[in-house]
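Re: beginner question about structure tokens

> Can someone show what the tokenized structure looks like for a real chain? I only ever see the sequence side.

Sure, here's an example I had lying around. Input first:
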Amino acid sequence: MSAYPRSPKLVKAGLVLIDPASAAVQRVISLQYNSDMLTRSLQVQTTGGEAHDRMEPVRFKGPAVESYKLEADIDATDQLEYPAQHPDAAGSGIQPQLALLESLMYPSAAQLARVDSQAGSGVLEIAPMLAPLVLFVWGKNRIVPVKVTDFGITEEAFDPLLNPIRAKVSLGLRVLSVDDLGFSSRGGALYMAYLQTKERMAGKVQTVSFAALGIGGING
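And the corresponding structure tokens:
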């Protein structure tokens, strides 16, 4: 039975990988199922306002340090019911999807081989290997550069060949601000757009009167 034609299209959360040198899109990764919960934390960066320091007002040192935590389910059970239509699932389970997400955690084999070749040829100073810029996408109003800080996989079911067919992936992400990326970079521009979107959203909330707070005004 087809879905109701007026049903809203489900938007997938996901990650976009950007080449750090050219700013070209390398890969778009969508999560199979959106997480039921997204935990966010913001650590303010301020100075001043300390005890006995009456002359120094509170000042912002920079953007708040923002972090995300979420869990994503990956499941090949439905695909295994139709192995002819999904040969990868029949042969490997969800290992390709897990391998793709795990690739965010380490440099490629080609990068490691290149560093080993440079070391073997006598290069004294080898630059650290560049990682792609990762964008976390949770709808059109939340597109933000991030660094993966935590990654965990719980494999919950297996096929007869011990290929995982169901797993839960936990992701910890730290937002990269202009403090990390600078204003002139592609990532810095994306962060500024993200911050400006927040400000527009905040502007949609109507101000209230003092009466809503149960007071008549502020008397200094």
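Each token stands for a local structural state, so reading them left to right follows the chain. The chain has one domain: 14-107+134-202.
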